[in-house]
Each structure stands twice: as C-alpha cells, then as structure tokens.
C-alpha cells in the first residue's frame, strides 16, 4: 500500500534534471542497546518527464556522487544524519524526502490543519514544525523546519500511478549536510 520512498531519502537537482538513487549500500551499526544503520545512496538515476504522455521515467546514468544517511532509532524518534560524499559540482538543490503512503492525508503545521482533499499536491510549511497523520493507519510523524532549508508538504493519490504523502526538505547549492529528528507515534 502506497509508494512513498521512506524517510531521509536524498535527491539532487542538476541543470539537466533530478538525480535519484538506483543503488545503495546498507550497513547495520546497531549495538546491544542501540538501533543504527547507515545507507549510502548512489545518485545514478535521472528523472525524465514525457510531456505528451504525462509519465516519468528513471534512466540509469553515471553516478553524480553519493549521499550517506545514518538512521538512529531512539524510542519513538528516528534521528537522521545526512552527509554528502563526492557530489559532482554544479548541483542546484538537494532534497531529503520523508514520504510514506497517501493514507497520511492529515497535514498540520502551527498555522493550519488540512485533511483529505483540502491537502494539496504541494505547499510550503509555515511555522517551525509539520506533521502528517493517518487516522486509518493510526500513525503520525512530525519533523522540525531546519535552518537553510525549505520544508514542503505534499500528497498525491491517483491510483494506480501515484500514492504518496510527504514532508520534504529542499536545500540550496550550499548543502553540506543536515541533521533532524522525526517523531513517530500513534495518531492523536
């Protein structure tokens, strides 16, 4: 159910398009009392949009670099540390995607709550935090706004092609890494 890419998934925009990861290496760094894993994303797929058909495709290309994401689970929180590795110069933006199923149809920030069809495809977050909730799944997550990044909320449900909702960070060409914490728990 749903097609969200997960938490802390990087994308990088160059003048010729958005670059995604088609390959990644995951290492379990967990200890007896900690859950930690590191995933290094290879930026080796470029997104192409066909205006005639309205479809997207992802073509395998030489890598534009890697971004390492370390996930640390602490109770009901997931701490995410992102670090760029050998990114090809000339990128314009870096995104850190936090996306799950479109079942997360209840968006809130300090200024508003939007549910169902009132929650649009994309909107900027106002205030210092945002939350997505799914009453049907009984879950929600929230995350802070970060200095140097815009936080965008979005949702698309167009079966069978699109089924996602997310809170995505967008950084500029000066991206040097980021740290943030997702709070995950039962829907309230």
Describe the structure.
The chain has 188 residues and is mostly beta strands. The chain has one domain (6-186). The chain contains no helices and 15 strands. It has a 15-stranded antiparallel sheet that branches. The protein starts with 5 loop residues before the first strand and ends with a strand.
What is the topological layout?
Layout: E1 6-14, E2 17-28, E3 35-50, E4 55-60, E5 66-74, E6 77-85, E7 93-100, E8 106-109, E9 112-115, E10 122-124, E11 129-134, E12 139-144, E13 149-158, E14 162-171, E15 178-186
Antiparallel strand pairs: 1-2, 1-7, 2-3, 3-4, 3-5, 5-6, 6-15, 7-14, 8-9, 8-11, 10-13, 11-12, 12-15, 13-14
Structural class: mainly beta
Gyration radius from CA atoms, angstroms:
17 Å
- The share of residues in extended strands comes to over 45%
Count of distinct structural domains: 1
Largest sheet: 15 strands, antiparallel
Shape: globular
How many β-strand runs? 15
Q: Residue-averaged pLDDT, rounded?
A: 94
Order of helices and strands: EEEEEEEEEEEEEEE
Helix content: under 10%
What is the terminal separation in angstroms? 22 Å
**Low-confidence parts, pLDDT < 50 over ≥5 residues?**
none
Q: Please, how many helices?
A: 0
Keywords:
188 residues; mainly beta; 15-stranded antiparallel beta sheet; 15 strands; 0% helix
Task: Describe the structure in brief.
By secondary structure, the chain is mainly beta.
